[in-house]
Amino acid sequence: MSLLYRAAALGFGGAAATTGTYAGVYYMKRERPSVAEHLKSSGYKLIFFIENSDNVKLQWKEEFKSDRENIKLLIGFTGSSDENGGKALEKWCASRLNEEYSENLEGLEGVKNYCVLRTIDSQLSRNKKGILADNDSDKWNKTYDKRKATTTLSPRSQIGLSGEWGQRNDSKNADLPLIKDWCKTQSQSYFLAYQKTYTNVYNWCTEDGASVTQ
């Protein structure tokens, strides 16, 4: 049975079906759905859904890095390379996702934590960061001022603000509510390692953004 069929038979498209990323996953007739099928029907989106094999590879690497020590314990990985750790995590997820679903399945929480796409807010949390609270006025001001001072790194258009920084010298009061709305929306979007959205959220929406200069 081809890798393409193995992926397609379980309802996976994208890189899983087109590049053989979902190696080792076999279609079997079952009375109960697989873990993958259950998660899909429950609203989860698997990392394997990402298009482009290079993007999938990068996602697994970043997923491994995001909680390295706990993932090592979970999957029994003892190496030091994040790239190899990502490959090991991918293999572990492929195996678990193919099993029949049961609420008592060993490793199920690990699958939910490390085999699916998470939000940018979740990625920030794993990095011990977070979106500024609405009432953190002083911190919002500091981050805003740093973005205004780094015009090449942080053009206003990067987050949908109109005009150029030099044309908007007194726009902070008008800008900040728009920035906060943007931050709330983008923090709930998927963390995709091949996109720049996470970096933009980090720069514009966190306390640490006030220290980012390049």
TrEMBL record:
Recorded superkingdom? Bacteria
Q: What is this protein called?
A: Uncharacterized protein
Q: What is the lineage of its organism?
A: Bacteria, Bacillati, Mycoplasmatota, Mollicutes, Mycoplasmataceae
